[in-house]
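note to self — DONT lose this again. spent like an hour looking for the file last time. sequence + predicted structure for the chain T wanted, 685 res
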Amino acid sequence: MWHGFRNITVLPGEYRQQMRQKKIRLAVLVCSLFLLGISVPVYGKRAVGSGFLPGRTLWEPEEGEICVTLPMAYFRRQTIRLWWSEKESKYYLFLPSFWQEGDCLWLWTKAGTPLKLDGDTPAFGRTDALCEGLHSLEIAGECYTLEVMASGEIPALFVEMENGKGKALKEEPYERQYGGTVMLADSEGRVETEGVLDNLRVRGNTSADWVKKPYQMTMRQAADFLHMGSAVKWNLLSNWSDKTLMRNKITYDMAARADMAYAPESAFVDLYLNGSYEGCYQLCEKVEIGKNRVDIRNLEDYTLYEPDQEERNLDALAEITKEDPQKGGVETMENGICLRGYDTRMAADDLTGGYLLEIERPSRIYASASFFITRGGQPVTVKRPKYADRAQVTYIAGLWQTFEDALFSADGVNPGTGLHYSSYIDEESFVKKYLVEEIVRNYDASSTSQYFYKDTDAADSRIYAGPVWDYDMSLGNPIMSPLTNQHYISSVSPYGLFAALPMDEFSIWYRMYEHEDFREKAAATYTETFLPILRELETEEIDDLASYLEDAALADGVRWGRNKGWDRQSREREYEESVEILRTFIGTREDYLTGLWRDGRQSVKVYLDGGDADLYISYVEGLIGDVLEEPLAPEKEGYTFIGWLNGYTKEPYDFSKPYDGSDLYFVAQYRKDADGSLLTAGEEQ
């Protein structure tokens, strides 16, 4: 049977349907091929690593500078500069965490200077031969050592601005440098956040004088870094004084875990400023009023004032005020409070909030735009509103004075109002804030960086303590020892109370701890809330954080001279020793405070007699039944210190034996350098 062609009739509707399906299949095929064509280089970023050129930047390298351009995800690239160590006469290349060994890099100079890496000339500057460790680098025939160091998993923050602004940033402290860009890349080279920089400036007080500067970064528009919430202002803490880089982070996280309101969130980043590696920084929320910060009403939004040039220059204003307080705008009110406020235009009649306050040192209070000093002598900066109306400062100063009058009374009751001091404050926040200061033995606990806030009376009429801030000089940081102490009290000892001591007659934590009800609440909150946190910290979390930070901390230590090791092994050893000092302090501090507050053991101060020598501390403190900490050795010209004697028996004291609580004080014994004769303190002629 023969089968011929069948005559198939296609209706117009069916034909259109078939053509539509063909077009859809064709479109799907084309899209699939397109996606396939870009998926490999997009998700396999290093597949295109050998074909890039230097990217455009806002800055330009100086003559003779050597730069490296390296690949990122999504076809992007980043340029960084080699760093020349004058001390070691060698180059360093500090690579961000998204670099991986084998990546193709482009090594170049602005003038096209001939370069050789490990004896080979990179073709067009491209090389994949870099690895961590030492290399030889030949520059126009001159040979140098190049050491390559790479970060671990720390995100990289790239801040770019024009060359002149980058230089002025460090040469003119506190002067804002305007304009630039910011880009944050994760450890895979993916850009997480980028935006336009409004300005960058050096921040801080003591820390602003360090070689590794802390910064305040202000964005043109609110940006969210590492899921910490959108905001315009961000701080970059240098932590230069802390070899571990951990102390601020540990304390902020402790406060957050203790449910303290508005504890600053933070994360570590490697900072590159105009391509130059600046070290490992702590990118941190700024303590300020705002939606994702201290979330209270901001009176700044209702206070209109344009300061003149003299009022803007707070350092100059401070000098004027020291010479003549009245000329500096300081008024003494009838109730004895001194304050500085302004004649502003207020767009709201409600003066009750919100305010952000900070306890400040008497020597620095005049450099605050707005402030008050209580009758007891406590200086308090009005951080917000910055240029506060005179009526606003008068209101908040009066409220604080009423609280102070109650707190410093014998029974804790204000004699004028009949109210207990706890009526004026959120006591839970004050208890937790005190405990943080005491646990970490914060050097500044009674003098500065102590924040408080108050919302409107409609929201809450009480003063709150917090947020926590500034703890690099805490947790036994050895940079404080032995000469930097307060009132001859060891700043680095894990024993004894510190925040609760009367550093000044107006010390707030000292006076609060004098009240039995506060002591009881502090002991209970420590046991229930902070003790579990401390035990997790010392058993697991310090090691985890140290492991995460180690590579970045080693590079930071080399860049800023905080790590004296000359090779990887010695640097690791020194970093581990620094971490061990921190771990030991936390463990010993926890033992002491637990014995005092949970177990009810007695703590005793044993005083020292060093004679006419330079004596760094006046006493040591410990729990009865524990061994006492051996005091720092005094220094006496012409004599060598031998040891401490029991002041009653004049026998050498054995610091390896537990203290039984008997009457005791220590006297120093010396040997005269000239003739070897012995001298006991108190027997000097």
